[in-house]
Amino acid sequence: MCNFLFLLALGVPQASETLTSSGVFLLQMGWGDLGAFGEPSKETPNLDQMAAEGMLFLDFYTANPLCSPSRAALLTGRLPVRNGFYTTNGHARNAYTPQDIVGGIPDSELLLPELLKKAGYINKIIGKWHLGHRPQFHPLKHGFDEWFGSPNCHFGPYDSRERPNIPVYRDWEMVGRYYEDFKIDLKTGEANLTQLYLQEALDFISKQQASQQPFFLYWAIDATHAPVYASKQFLGTSQRGLYGDAVREIDDSVGKILNHLQQLGISENTFVFFTSDNGAALISAPKQGGSNGPFLCGKQTTFEGGMREPAIAWWPGHIPAGGVSHQLGSVMDLFSTSLSLAGLQPPSDRQIDGIDLLPVILQGKLIDRPIFYYRGNELMAVRAGLYKAHYWTWSNSWEEHSKGIDFCPGQSVSGVTTHTQEEHTYLPLLFHLGRDPGEKFPLSFASEEYQQAVERISGLVQQHRATLVPGQPQLNVCDQAVMNWSPPGCEKLGKCLKAPESDPKKCSWPH
Amino acid sequence: MCNFLFLLALGVPQASETLTSSGVFLLQMGWGDLGAFGEPSKETPNLDQMAAEGMLFLDFYTANPLCSPSRAALLTGRLPVRNGFYTTNGHARNAYTPQDIVGGIPDSELLLPELLKKAGYINKIIGKWHLGHRPQFHPLKHGFDEWFGSPNCHFGPYDSRERPNIPVYRDWEMVGRYYEDFKIDLKTGEANLTQLYLQEALDFISKQQASQQPFFLYWAIDATHAPVYASKQFLGTSQRGLYGDAVREIDDSVGKILNHLQQLGISENTFVFFTSDNGAALISAPKQGGSNGPFLCGKQTTFEGGMREPAIAWWPGHIPAGGVSHQLGSVMDLFSTSLSLAGLQPPSDRQIDGIDLLPVILQGKLIDRPIFYYRGNELMAVRAGLYKAHYWTWSNSWEEHSKGIDFCPGQSVSGVTTHTQEEHTYLPLLFHLGRDPGEKFPLSFASEEYQQAVERISGLVQQHRATLVPGQPQLNVCDQAVMNWSPPGCEKLGKCLKAPESDPKKCSWPH
C-alpha cells in the first residue's frame, strides 16, 4: 500500500505496520535565531542538523505578528480575520488571549486535530494553547485527546487577588499554577518547564509507538517568550545570555525528540515541522529577545522581522536531505499539508488559506501564491514573488514609543517604520525582498518595475478583499470575571479562587 | 616526513611528492552575504559547501573597514597604523590608494610572498593589488612572481584628460585599461573580468601542479565592489539583483577552483582561506551593496558590520569537516598562519599583530587575544572575549549624511551611530556581542559587569598603546602627476598619456 498516507493515515497502522505521525514544534523565535539561519553564535546544533537532514524554508511566514492569532491560524488553516482571532476595538491593533479575554476559538471553526481524529489519530498538545481559556474553548473540546500545559502566557507572578496565576492543565483539569506549583524564578530565569514538556513529548511518542497508534503532537513550548526561562543545567551556557540559554535547551530538546523517533524506528513515519508563531520580540532584546537576522523590526509588526519565521521540515527517507525551498509558505499550510498527508480533504464549506506543501516538499515544486500580512482587522501588506507592497505602515504610536516601547530598536527607516498609522492604499510602498530583504529602500513610484509589480499585487488584493467574509471578532471583550479563578480541578487542589463580579468591557489593545 | 609543513614547505616537493600550497580568496563582501551565514536567498552553494567541508569562523575580522589598509595588513601581518596604511590628515579618517596617491607599501615592510619566496614558493596575485601603484610599489617588487590585475579600484570610465583609466597588468607591464580594453558596462553591469580571473587561477594552479612547485595564490577579485559587475551568463540570475549576480559568479568560481584542486589531486596539499577585506558597503545598497547580516552599519565604520567578515578555512584531510570556531581571528593571522605552515618564523625585528591559527584550525583550541578596530590613526574600539568597548564613535559627518551618504541605512542607534566624532575614552561604550550582536544596547556604566569588562579591556588598550610605534603614514599626500598616465608597457600599446605637472597636496579624506 502506498505510504503516501504517511502523516495522517486513517485508523490503525497499515499492514506494513507503518506508524503515521506528525509533530509540530512551535515557539516564539526569530528567523535569525538558528545557526542554520545565520545566528552569529551558532548554538543550535540539533536544529541545524534537522535542517541538514530535512528541508529549510527561507520564505516561511506566520499568519499574524502575535501569538494567539498565529496559533489559531495554524490549527484552522485560516487567517485570523476569518477565524475570529482579531479585534475591531481599534484599527490595525494586535490582540491576543490574556486571561481576562472573553472570546476564544469558536465552535464553528474546524481544527486540525478534530479532522485528524476522524482519521484515527491521537492528538496531543504540550505547552501553550492560547486559543481561549474558558471551558468551551478547552483544547480537548476541539479535537485534542491530551494536553499538558497552560491556556495563557506564563506571565506572573500574580497576587491571586487582582489576578490569579495561570493554571497548568493535564487534560481536563488543572494540576497546579505557574509560580506556585510550577516555579519560574524571575531573578535567575530558572524553570524546569522545558524539561517537563520534553519528557511529556518523549513519553507520548513512546506510548503511541507501543500502541501502534498514529499521533499528532503539537509541541507548543514557550521558554523563549518573556519572561524567558531555562533549566539549571542550561543557565549561563550560552553566549547570548538567558534567551540563548532557553534556545539551547529547546535545541537540545528537539535533538532528543528526533533521536527518540529514530531510536523507536518511527522517524521515517513521522513528519516533523519546526517553526515559530511570530518574529523575535525585539522589545525584549537583548536580555529576553531574539534575533530576526537581516530583517526589519520584530513581533507586533508586519515588517519581515515580525512575520518571517525559521522553518524546517523533517521526514527522513522522504524529504531529501539538505533541501532549501523559496516557496512562500505559511503556518496555515501545515493544516492543509497534514490533511493531504492523511488523505483527507480540507473542509469545503469555508475558505481555507493554507495550501498543501507536499508538492514543494517532496517534488521541489514552487507554487505561486501571495502572503497576506494582517495586523488586527487590517491588511497591512502583501507579498507576491519577491515583491512586498505595504498598504499601511506603522510600528507603534508616538505615545508608546516615547515611553521606550520600541518594536524596531536600532532600526528606523524614514516613512516606513512610522509611529502614526500611515495609509498607502493608492500608492503602496513597494520593496524587492531579494535585493532589499531589510525593507529599507522603497522602489521609486515612477519606475516601470513599481507599476508592474503593484498592478499585479493590487489585483490579488482586490480578489482577496472581494471574497473575504470576516469572522465574528473574538478578541474585543475583556472581563476580570473570566480569569482563571477556578479552573476545573481547582477543588481537588484547594486552589479555587473567588471571581469578581462580571464587568465586561472593550479590551484595550495599545498596538 | 611529517606533513605539518603542508602549506608553505621549503623548496621543492617532499619525498612524498606533497605539493604544499595556499590560496587566499579576498573580496569585498559582508558577513551576511553567504548562505552559510544566513543570507536569506541562500545562493552560495559552493561557498556553503566549502564551509561544510572546512571550518567556519564566526568571529573573524578585517584590520580596517576599508580595502587598501586591510590588504596591507593581510600581507604584512601588521596593523595599518604600523605598516603605514593610514592617514594623519584628519582624525579617524579612512584612507586608501586612489590613483593620485603618492604613497604605497614601504620597502621596509616584509610581505608574506617575500618570505614564502625564500621557502621556494611561486606567488601569484590575481586581481586588485591596492598597495600603491607607483613603480616602487609594484607587487613583483614585493615578493610576487606573477600578477594579473589592477593596481587600483575599477572606478571609471575616465576621460584620459583629467584622469586616466586604471591599467590592467600582466606581471611587470600593463596589457590594457579598464573600460577601454577590459570592458565594464555600467548600465547593464556586464563584465567578464571574474571569468578572466577564474581562468588565470585555474591555469596557474595547473602549471604549479605540473611543475610540482608549491604556490601561494592570492585571488583578490573585486566584482562585488561598486561598480558591481558580472558576466553575461550570471546577469539576472540572482534574487538579489546585480550584487547577487556578482556573488553567484564568485561562488561559482570558488567552486570551480576547489574542484580543480581536487581533480588535480592536490586539495589535501592546499590550504585555502576565504574572507573579505571589509564589510558590505551599505552605502551602495541595495543595488550594489551586500549584507552584514545582524550587524550594525557597514564598510567605513568600526561597528561590527564594517569589520566582521565571513571566513572559511578549507583543507580536506586536515581540517575536520563542519567545524565552527569562535576564535577571534584577523586577516593578519593569515600571515602568521601561513608562515607557521611553511615552518618559517615571523620576522623578529618588528611587531606582528597576526597570530598562528593552526592550533585553532587543527586542534580546536581557543586563543585569548583582543581585536583592535582602527579607523585611520585612531583606535576606535577593542573587542576582548564577547565584550566590545568603543572609545570613539562616529559613522560619518552630518554634512555628508545630509547629502545622503549613509553608512548605516535604516539603522540608527542613539549615541552610537553618531554623526560627530564622539570620544568615550573615560567611559567607553560597552556591548556584549553575544547577547547583543547588533551593538544596540550599551551596558549600564554602573553595572559590575561593565566595570569588570572595561577594566580588562582598558588594560589591553594601555599595553597596546604603550608599545605602539606608528609607521610613517603613506596615505597623506596626493598628486595628479602620479596617476596611471604611463604605466610600464604603455608604449607597446600606444596607451601612454601625458602627466600633468607635479602638484602634491594633502589628500582629502571625507570620512
From TrEMBL, chains A, B:
Catalyzed reactions per annotation: Hydrolysis of the 6-sulfate groups of the N-acetyl-D-galactosamine 6-sulfate units of chondroitin sulfate and of the D-galactose 6-sulfate units of keratan sulfate
Domain of life: Eukaryota
Amino-acid positions noted as binding Ca(2+) in the UniProt annotation, renumbered to this chain: C67, D277, N278
Annotated GO MF terms: arylsulfatase activity; metal ion binding; N-acetylgalactosamine-6-sulfatase activity
3-oxoalanine (Cys): residues carrying this PTM: C67
EC top class named in words: hydrolase
Keywords of this entry: Calcium, Disulfide bond, Glycoprotein, Hydrolase, Lysosome, Metal-binding, Signal
GO cellular component: lysosome
Keyword Manganese: no
Assembly and binders: Homodimer.
Name of the molecule in the record: N-acetylgalactosamine-6-sulfatase
Organism from which the protein derives: Corvus moneduloides
Annotated gene: GALNS
